[in-house]
Amino acid sequence: MQISSESKNLAELLPITGNVGYVIPEYQRNYSWREEQIEQLFNDIATEDLGYYVGNLLVTNHGDSAELCDVIDGQQRLTTLSLFLLAIWECLNNWPASLPEGESLPNNVIEDMAGLKRDIRRQLLNENTNQPRICLLETDRGIYNAMLGVMVGKTQGKWGNRSLPKRYHFIYNLFNDRAHFATPQAIDNYYKKLVSATTLKISVPDLSEAFTVFSSLNSKGLPLTLVDLLKGEFLAAAGKINEDHATAVERWTTFSGIFSEDESGDPNTTLTTQFLTNNFDAFESDGKQSITKSKALKKYQQLITEHYRQGENYLQTLIDRASIFARIARIGDNSYPDEQIDDKLQSLSKLESSQAYPLLLFLFCNAEKLQITNNLCSILDNLIKFYVRRNITLVPKSSNIRARMLNLIHTIKDKNLTGHDVNACILAELKEMSESDDRFANAICNDGIYDKNAKTTRFVLIDLERNLPGNNLINKGNPDTFDEYIKKNQPRWTIEHILPEGPLPDYWKDAISPDDREQAESVQRKYVHLIGNLTLSPYNANLKQLPFMDEKHPSREEDNYTKSKRDFKEHGTYVGLRECLRLNASIPAPSERIEEKTSWSIADIIRRTKWFKDRIMERYAFPNDDEA
């Protein structure tokens, strides 16, 4: 990689002579610095010594020009520094008119101001063309150019609520503050610090190498992503299939909009990058190793060239695939039209199954070609079973799963498998990766699964509650709310430890270690996270360290009772361990009734864990090969 770097101050980056210029490529973001970022840079320059380092400027060649550069990283800062210069010019230009009537500036000050204004104009405008040295994106360019036009006698326009002029107005007010800049000399002093501000200018020969460099830089600005850079590649390639620029931009907007998670419409670049790497692994890779982000740009540059040379609108291909990926990865409000399949995809998303995304993307995009439309539910069921078993046993390692999923894609392709054979191939691979039933059972009975994977534990509890036989609280008047969230990251139903976590009150120490309270903490650590000690409750925050049952203050006829976990009551309804959940039916032993059970012991946890083991083994058993 050919990289050159040199320290440059602003006076060298924006010289008063020559044709040096900077182009902001189309894949970049519009000007988006916030006021606090601007003010921080303003204050840093004011308070630090001459030559203060403000950050990196990463550039690559702009075509064959020796004097123009494309700005890959640092454009937000460079634009802000140019706006500082413009604000200084305007403040000096308006200074005489702001003086009280009858006052004037000394001639030498007026001459100094005129010289400084002349230098700033030449720094911001090419002396030969009167065009700005910095060429912003089209949406900002017209405003920026008009703002700079004031230096050559043009009138400022009105731009409403646009971000760039709003930020410039903020900058102008910083310099127009007479409390800090009481005289033109004070502004001149700031100017000297400004043009001495130092940047490390890093030059690389092409875009792919620039991506590798800037992704590792500790920049103070808004770093570019793989997504930003590929935008420019697609817009440039559109012309090869005679697609006009406006249509290409609209198509890119459609693509990026798929990955928006809120009303702003801004794409989540992490999700977009995740799709691009999964798309490459599923359709473009000829190996078993996943592509890295640092290599993705160069690979996609090659792909874009190849596909567009063949007349294929590859961006539209990605739009079609991304629409399916958004359903698989549960992005925003995207859902699969088939409710049964959508429910299973939602289940997979709760099991941290992203290693399977390339396989799922490949299968769903090619469902008709592979003749597996009627097999998708079965394939998803087997993946759910695999991930439940994997997340409880922790075998195989997460890092190994993706390679095995990619191997499945290549096997299906190489053997031209279709229909039932695809399903059977996937099932065989999932079985081979999974631990045996004996080891699965041992992990359930002897290991705390909550502290291994709380999300999977919650999924299993809810799944069993919905599918076990017997009565529960769900009906038309009381619908299923197990998946509801009170607010982001706060589910309505959470996991309740019957024997509580954390410091134990004496009554719990006596319950689990009646002969020696000193041993209670050790006993608690061993058994507290076993699934036999767990249930679901919307009242987890209320139950906490309460006793199982309070014999001194038993529940009577009161509508609200808060003395014990068993009898916790709200508005006359039991909402503690006596809540009508199928899971709670196993809290008492077969010979007991919940309302008569007065204690919770280690023997109860072991008994109930074995009960859970039988139900989990049955629920998540792989089908026989002939049932695939």
Structure description:
With 628 residues, the protein is α/β, with parallel strands linked by helices. It has 3 domains: 4-214, no CATH class; 226-435, no CATH class; 444-619, no CATH class. It is built from 25 helices and 12 strands. The strands form 4 sheets. The chain has a 6-stranded mixed β-sheet with strand order 1-6-3-4-2-5. Strands 7-8 form a two-stranded antiparallel ribbon. β7 and β8 (490-491) form a beta hairpin. The two termini are 51 Å apart.
Ordered list of secondary-structure elements with their pairings:
Elements: E1 4-9, H1 10-13, E2 21-23, H2 35-47, E3 53-61, E4 68-73, H3 75-98, H4 107-124, E5 134-135, H5 138-148, H6 163-175, H7 184-196, E6 198-204, H8 207-214, H9 226-237, H10 245-257, H11 269-284, H12 293-309, H13 314-328, H14 339-349, H15 357-365, H16 367-370, H17 376-393, H18 398-414, H19 419-433, H20 437-446, H21 454-467, E7 485-487, E8 490-491, E9 494-497, H22 506-512, H23 520-527, E10 534-537, H24 540-543, E11 569-570, E12 573-574, H25 602-619
Using brief descriptors, characterize the structure shown.
628 residues, 50% helix
Number of strands: 12
Strand content: 5-15%
How many structurally independent domains? 3
Main beta-sheet strand count, sense and barrel state? 6 strands, mixed
Mean pLDDT across all amino acids:
91
Give the uncertain stretches in residue-range form: 218-222
General shape: globular
Distance from first to last alpha carbon: 51 Å
Radius of gyration (CA) equals: 33 Å
Strands of the biggest beta sheet: in what spatial order? 1-6-3-4-2-5
* Structure annotation, total helices: 25
Q: Return the structural class.
A: alpha/beta
Helix content: 40-55%
